[in-house]
Structure formats: structure tokens, C-alpha cells
Amino acid sequence: MTGILAFIVVFGVLVTVHELGHLIFAKRAGIMCPEFAIGMGPKIFSHKYNDTLYTVRLLPVGGYVRMASEEMEVNPLNAGMRIQLKVDEKDEITHIILDDKHNFTQIEEVEVVESDITKEMYIRATRLHDGQEVTYNLAHESYFVENSQLERIAPKESRFESKSVGHRFMTLAAGPLMNFVLAFVLFTVLFYVQGKPTDEAVVGFVAEDTPAEEAGLQEGDRLETINGETVDGWNDMSAIIQEQGEQPLDIEVANDGESRTVEMTPVVETTELPDGETSERLIIGIGAEMERGMFSPILWGAEQTVQMSTMIFDLVVNMFLSIFEGTFSFDMLNGPVGIYKVTEEVAAQGLITLINFTAILSVNLGIMNLLPIPALDGGRILFVLYEGIFRKPLNKKVELNIQLIGVLFLLMVMILVTWNDIKTFFL
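RESULT FIELD:
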């Protein structure tokens, strides 16, 4: 149960922050957003505010911001359909009433001849009371009314494609950007809570029932040499211990100006990985000394975000290179099932580890969404950049076909990765 809750919370936070980035920048650009959804599938909660329906959906595996655009506008009106219209003093339509579940008065009942709610923004209809055919224009603020619910019809100037290249670029890039911001905040919080490990070979704490405790190592001890080898730092100390193997170590220690020599034998620590494999390393049972500060954690948080971004970017590049080198394997990828299993393992190690894992996942989500793959943010950004460079949008039919190919590609990859995860973790 803990693993499931951790997965829902972690995924929920990552998706919410990502989609919130899109929403904030879209609204700042004047783009109408009919829906902001966390999760996929059937709605379990909804609340409407400022023409945006905020929903929480059943499956915690994604989310989206539905932005008004020409492609997203669905016209429910068909020729011969009988509807009711509410018009203002300019004879412009303010409400298109699709059923009788309403309290409007002074409405006009008509039969639709033809309509356009995406470009020309009009309805041509025959009035039932006198049989006259009339063309009505839609008011700037107009709504569909059905089941007592109002859904605003997006004005042309409030749609995604009507905005400048800069506004569209920032709206699309804001999702990944917010994931990097989240990672920075989480890393910074962790540094404030627990400090930053120093690279000096100084004992910060000694674990119970370990060789270090039995040998009498104490907090503040500085490891000078191991079996005669000079220790230059924490990483150097760890490397020497691994090189020496499972044999007695003579360690020269300094503390408060006094030196002493202790003897201990490392033990093997076995860690079970989420995929069922195990990892082994030699340990003596000490932790690094922590450095703290008032403002330093902010700088450390930024550095950690950059370092993690660089590392993950390199891994992604190498993964794509492996496709051309013939060494690619789906074991390099994790789908929702794999992420759930890893989250379950990480959650068992405590809140601090889970927060660190969430920050890493956030960086990963930001980078993956920036990949120039159609249907991802990076692919859509390419279309916007194309328009900015060539001063004209890509042919709509070509763009839609590319998007469709991207969706099918991602769907196929997701199916294969999920099946690989199932085989790895459950079969």
C-alpha cells in the first residue's frame, strides 16, 4: 500500500507541476484553456473556475491542459438540428442552447442551416416562428449550454495558433521548465534538511553493528591512509576500500591533532534492485560529514539540478546512439510499471530518499518532454520554431500526419516498455 500511495503522490506532483507550467504561461499569453486535468480516464472530481474546468481523473498516469485551438474546437451543430439561441442587443449570439434544461427567457428557436464556430464564427438558421432564414454572428463571449452547464466558445484571438511565436514557444516550454524548477526546489530543501556531504574523508556518523563501530571510529575522525595508501578524499577512500577487497585494513586516523591506527575488515553490502538483480559493494559503515549553510543550499540545489540534467541528457543521447550501434535494449527504459516498482523500493528507504528520487524523476521528465519527437512538447516546439524561422506555419495536413505518427510511435514504445517491465518484475 505504501508503494502505491508513494507512486500516486510522486506521479501526481510531477504531472501537476508540469501541466501547471503550461497552464500558467498559456493564460498569461491569453490562450483559453477549457480543461486542466490530472490523471487520465473517468473524472472523479471537477471544479470550474474562469472558463477552465479543473479535473482529477481516475488513472494517475498523466495529465493535460486542453488549450483552445482550431483543431480542438468541436462543432456539435448539424444541418437540420433544432436549437435555441439567446442573442444580445446587437443580435449576436451569446448562448447556444442544446437542450431544454435551462432557465433562459426571451430565446429564439431555430433550425440550423449551416454553422462555423472556428473561422467565420456564425450560424445560419431558419427561425421557426416565421420561417425566415437569418445569419447570426457569435458574440465575443458566447457559450454552448447543455445539461445546465456553460462551455465557452473560444474566440479566434484566444486560441493557441493566434498567438505570437514567442508566446507559443514559452507556453510549450513551460511544462519541462517547471519540472527543472521543481527539481531545484526539492534538491535545495534536501540540502537545507540534511546538508551536503563533503568530499573530505571525515567521519560524519558511524552506523551500528558495522566494522567501523567495532574498530572504534568516531564522528570527526579523518582517514589519512588505508594500508599505507594516502587518502585524498571521500571518493578516493571508497575506491581504495573496493580495491583492497574483503581483507583487513590498517587505517590511520587523525582527530584533534592526535593520530591512531585502527584495524577492520570491510563487509559486503548487498542491495536488491527493483528488477530483481542485486548489487554488491564493500563498506565499513561510516557516512560523510555534512556541510551546512544559510544560502549555500540554494547554490547547491542549482548545481545538483544542472549536474543531474547533464547526466540524464548524456544517458538519453547514448541510448539513441545505441539504436544505430545495434546495442539498444528495452531494459534501458522504464514505463509506468517499472517506475512504480522503483518508487516502491525507494519509498521503503524513507522520505528523504523518496524526495531525492522525485527530484531526479522531475529532471528526467523535463528532458524527455523536450525531445524533438512529435506529440511531445519538444516536437510541438519544433513546429513553432519552423514557423518563426520561415515566417509561415507548416502545412496543417502535414503537421497532423506527423503528430499522428508521433502518437503511434510513442504508443508502440509504451506498450513494448510496459510488457518488458511486466516480464522483468512479475514473470
